[in-house]
Amino acid sequence: MNLVVVSNRVARARAxxxxxxxxxxxxxxxxxxxxAIWVGSSGRVRDGVHKxxxxxxxxxxxxxxxxxxxxxxxxxxxxxxxANSALWPALHSRSDLIxxxxxxxxxxxxxxxxxxxxxxxxxxxxxxFWIQDYHFLALGAELRDLGVRNPIGFFLHTPWPARAIVGAxxxxxxxxxxxxxxxxxxxxxxxxxxxxxxYLQSELGLKIDDGVVTSRYGKSxxxxxxxxxxxxxxxxxxxxxxxxxxxxxxRRSLNGEQLAIGVDRLDYSKxxxxxxxxFDRMLTSQPELKRTVSLLQxxxxxxxxxxxxxxxxxxxxxxxxxxxGRHGEADWMPIRYLNRGFNQTxxxxxxxxxxxxVVTPLHDGMNLVAKEYVAAQNPADPGVLVLSKFAGAANExxxxxxxxxHEIDGxxxxxxxxxxxxxxxxxxxxxxxxxxxxxxxxxxWFADFSDALQDAHASNKESASDLPAVESPKSWPLHxxxxxxxARVH
Length: 490
Ligand code: ADP
Fold this sequence. Notes:
This protein is α/β, with parallel strands linked by helices and 490 residues long.
C-alpha cells in the first residue's frame, strides 16, 4: 500500500526545533518510518493568479513531505475562520465561542476542494489516503467527487461532542454527510464515537449496524483508535536530557523545592485559568507549602489573531502576575510562566525534573502531554500525574490522580496530594500507566488504523462501485523542489 497522509500542519524533522501541537508531534516518527507521503500546508499562501497547486517536496525518513501553499483568498476564512472559530470551539463544547460567517464556510469548502485537487498528483492505483482532523472534514467527499475510489480514512484528533453542540455549527448536516465519504472514521474515545453515531441516527435518520453506516457514498465504518506516543524513545530522550544544560540549570534553580509542570498550547480548552487558580488556592489553604513547591507553566501562544485567544492570553498573564504578587517573596516565585516553545529533548528533561505533571484540560481529544510526562519519568523515583477526567488520556491513565477541572478546590487538594505522595505509591501508579502506554504506542495506532482502513475499504468496494465514474483532472502542474531520486510524485 502507498500511503498519503494529509493534515493541515506538518512537522519538519529537525530535533532542535520546537514541535508544538499534538498532531504534528505524534505523526512525525511514524510517518518517517512508514515511507508515506505526508501532505500539508506550507504555512504560506499564494494568490489566485497562480491557478496551479504549488508543492515543495522534501525527503522525510523513508517517505516524503509535501508542503502546499494554500489559496490566499481563502486561507483566513478557512483557518482562523471556520476551522478555528466554528469547528474547534464546538468540538470542545464551547458553542458560546462560535464565530463564523457564510464566507468562512465557503473558504473552508474551497480549501478542502483545493487540497483534493492537489492530492490527485499523489494518487496511484494502490494509494490509500489518510486524512487528519477537523480542518478537512469534507476532503473525502471532494476526493470522491473527483472520481477517487481508493481507500480514504479520516481520524479526528479532537473530541466529538453531544448532538446539541454539533447542531450549533453552521452547515453541520452538510459537513457530517460529507464525512460519510470516508471508508473509515476514527475517534479517540468511545464517547466521541458514540456521540457521532447518535448524531447520524437522530439528526440524519441513518441506520447503524455494528458501527457501520450506509449512505449514498456506500459504507463508512466508525471506530475508536486512541492515539499513543513513542514511549521508549521519549523515555530514553528524557534520561539523556537530565544532563542538558537547560535542564541542569532548572534543577539548580529549584534549591530543593519540588516542581509541578504544565505544558500546553495557550488554548481555552486547556483549563489554564482554573489550573492557576487551583495552585493559588493550594498556597492560600496550605501556606506551609510556600518555598517548598512551585509551578512551571509553559503556555505557547497559538491562533493569536482570534479574539478568544487574545483575551485568554491577557487574562492568564494578569492572573499569574496577581498570584505571584500575592504569594511571592523577594527570593521565591510560586509560578514561572513562559510563553515559548522548547525542543523535544529539553521538554522531556523538564518533565522528568518535575515531581508533579498537571494536565487539566476542560476538554481534550487525547492530550499527549499527559502521556509524555509519564513516559519521561525516572522509574526509580517517578512523579505523579494530575489529570483531568475530560482528557481522552484519562480512559487509559486511570492511576493518575483524576480531577474535575471545573472544581478548583478538588484540583488544589489533588496537587497537594501529588506533592506529598510516598515513593511506593508513586511507583505503583506510574508502572500501571506505563503498561498502558506500552500497550498503545503511536506505532500500534498507525498500524491499527492502516489495517482497519484496508479492511473497511475491502468490505465497502461493492457499494462504492455503484458510484458514477468522474474523470480526474490531468492538468495540475506541480513544482517539486529538493526531491531525491526515485520520485514518487508524477
Ligand atoms: P494539542 O494538540 O491540543 O496542542 P496535545 O497535548 O495533544 O495538545 O499535544 C501537544 C504537543 O505539543 C505535545 O507533543 C507537546 O510536547 C508539544 N508542545 C506543547 N507545548 C510545547 C512547547 N512549549 N514546546 C515544545 N513542545 C510543546
